[in-house]
TrEMBL record:
Subcellular location(s) per record: Cytoplasm
UniProt-recorded name of the protein: 33 kDa chaperonin
UniProt keyword annotations, A-Z: Chaperone, Cytoplasm, Disulfide bond, Redox-active center, Zinc
NCBIfam families, A to Z: PRK00114.1 (NF001033)
A GO CC term assigned to this protein in UniProt: cytoplasm
Lineage: Bacteria, Thermotogati, Thermotogota, Thermotogae, Petrotogales
The keyword Zinc appears for this protein: yes
Main location: cytoplasm
Disulfide linkage: 232-234, 264-267
Species whose genome carries this gene: Geotoga petraea
Length: 290
């Protein structure tokens, strides 16, 4: 279970979302066989996808794509409004890099580049927002996206806590100011409350409840609780359809080799595509080109 709690404050002018993504991050580390450094990065980005997923409208999907020049390579996470999440990182075996304070140097691993956030509302074309990676620490970059692209002042905190046995805690929290007409004293108060929050992973590692974290912001107008889950939608049909883009000559070569194995980048599941499958794809391409 990955608990997600969201609440409104100040007559719904303020929104707060808190996530405990520990189980999801443990699952991701296992299925992708991630090194610790890669686990921290993918855990943060995937948790960010949950935070943004709670903000999406019904049937809407959001994709977060960090395209930096650091050793992490591409880092992508997707979530829908039901908080079904899937994600991948190009470099699953990043050698650990540390800051002077002993924390993982996520900024160095991500590097410089751009953050792309794609909102698919099932309209003709998805809406894509592109902003510069200003930090590489993930949380600051998501907040920057919210402030710049969505024009919603936001603060975000993300974290993944590891020990020698693996993931101990993973989570995040986001504060959004939905009504910028609030007076300055109110805004400062909510900012101070956010800044008073301890590191989310330390908080969760001690067994504290997310609702107590939400209560730091005062009496809520509403409070809702959901569960997020890691869920990949790959299947045989999708994998076979992905091969249609290959030339017939390339498909024939695959067939001569006795078939191929295709590994899903989202969940690492392997699919065996045999000669019969490849022949069906070849025949289908031939009929379309006729």
């Amino acid at each position: 279970m990955n608990r997600v709690i969201q609440a409104g404050f100040a007559n719904n002018k303020v929104r707060v979302v808190a996530v405990d993504s520990t189980n999801m991050t443990i699952h991701m580390q296992k299925i992708h066989d991630l090194y610790p450094m890669s686990t921290v990065i993918l855990g943060r980005v995937s948790t960010a996808a949950i935070l943004l997923g709670t903000w999406m409208s019904e049937k809407e999907k959001v994709s977060i794509f960090f395209d930096g020049d650091g050793p992490a390579g591409e880092v992508v996470a997707k979530s829908d409004n039901n908080l079904n999440v899937k994600s991948y990182i190009k470099n699953k075996k990043i050698e650990a890099m540390f800051k002077e304070n002993g924390h993982f140097d996520v900024q160095k691993a991500i590097g410089e580049g751009n953050l792309h956030v794609i909102r698919d509302m099932e309209l003709k074309d998805p809406v894509t927002s592109n902003v510069e990676i200003i930090s590489g620490e993930i949380a600051e970059d998501i907040a920057y996206y919210m402030n710049q692209a969505e024009q919603i002042p936001s603060a975000v905190s993300l974290g993944v806590l590891l020990d020698k046995d693996g993931v101990r805690a993973s989570g995040g929290i986001m504060l959004q100011i939905l009504d910028q007409s609030m007076n300055e004293n109110e805004l400062i108060d909510y900012e101070k409350r956010f800044m008073s929050i301890p590191p989310i992973t330390s908080y969760l590692d001690k067994g504290n409840d997310l609702r107590d974290l939400i209560n730091i912001f005062g009496e809520s107008d509403y409070i809702e609780e959901k569960n997020a889950q890691y869920k990949c939608d790959c299947n045989d049909e999708r994998v076979k359809n992905s091969l249609v883009s290959f030339d017939i000559e390339e498909l024939e070569d695959m067939k001569k080799q006795g078939g191929i194995k295709v590994k899903c980048e989202w969940c690492s599941k392997e699919y065996n595509i045999d000669e019969k499958d490849l022949e069906e794809i070849i025949v289908g391409k031939g009929s379309k080109n006729a």
